[in-house]
C-alpha cells in the first residue's frame, strides 16, 4: 500500500509522496465534503417539500375560490330565470282571469248568432283556460325545481 501511496504522490507532484497524515487529511476531507454535499441536498429536498406543499395549498385555494365564483354566477343566472318565470306566471294569471271572466259573456250573445260561433267561443275559451292553467302549473314546478 505504501508503494501505491508513493506512486500517487509522485503523480500528483507531491514531493516525497503522501504521508499517513496526508492520507488522513485526504480521507477526512473527502468524508467532510461528502457529508457537506449530502447535508446540502437534504436541506434542499426538505425546502422543496415545503415549497411543493405550499404550491399545492395555493392551487387548492385557487380552485376552491373558482368554484365559489362559479356557484355565485350560476346562482345569479338561476335567479334571472326564476324572475322571468315569475313574470310569465303573473301575465298568464292575468290573462287566465280575463279568459275566465269572458265565460260569463256567453249569455250576452244575440239570439240571431249562429250556434257554431257560440260553440267555437266555448271551445276557444275552454282551451285557453286549460293552457293558461297548465302554464301556471308548469311555472310553479319550474320555479320549485330551479333551486
Task: Describe it.
With 147 residues, this protein is mainly alpha-helical. The protein has three helices and no strands. Helix 2 (20-102) runs antiparallel to helix 3. The chain is rod-shaped. The two termini are 87 Å apart. 2% of the residues are buried. The mean pLDDT is 82.
Write a compact overview of the structure shown.
This protein is mainly α and 147 residues long.
Order of helices and strands: HHH
Structural class: mainly alpha
In percent, how much strand structure appears in the residues?
under 5%
Number of helices: 3
**Main sheet: strands, sense, barrel:** none
Helical content (DSSP H or I, runs of 4+): over 70%
Mean pLDDT: 82
Distance N terminus to C terminus? Answer: 87 Å
Task: Please tell me how large the radius of gyration is.
Answer: 46 Å
How many strand segments? 0
Low-confidence stretches: none
The shape is rod-shaped
Fold blueprint:
Layout: H1 2-11, H2 20-102, H3 115-146
Helix pairs in contact: 2-3
Question: Could you list some keywords that capture this structure?
Answer:
147 residues, mainly alpha, 85% helix
Amino acid at each position: 500500500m505504501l508503494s501505491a501511496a508513493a506512486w500517487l504522490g509522485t503523480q500528483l507532484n507531491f514531493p516525497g509522496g503522501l504521508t499517513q497524515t496526508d492520507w488522513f487529511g485526504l480521507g477526512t476531507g473527502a468524508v467532510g465534503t461528502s457529508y457537506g454535499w449530502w447535508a446540502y441536498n437534504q436541506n434542499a429536498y426538505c425546502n422543496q417539500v415545503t415549497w411543493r406543499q405550499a404550491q399545492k395549498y395555493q392551487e387548492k385555494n385557487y380552485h376552491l375560490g373558482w368554484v365559489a365564483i362559479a356557484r355565485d354566477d350560476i346562482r345569479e343566472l338561476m335567479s334571472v330565470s326564476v324572475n322571468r318565470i315569475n313574470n310569465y306566471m303573473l301575465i298568464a294569471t292575468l290573462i287566465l282571469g280575463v279568459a275566465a271572466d269572458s265565460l260569463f259573456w256567453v249569455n250576452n250573445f244575440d239570439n240571431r248568432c249562429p250556434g257554431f260561433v257560440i260553440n267555437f267561443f266555448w271551445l276557444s275559451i275552454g282551451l285557453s283556460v286549460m293552457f293558461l292553467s297548465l302554464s301556471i302549473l308548469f311555472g310553479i314546478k319550474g320555479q320549485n325545481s330551479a333551486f
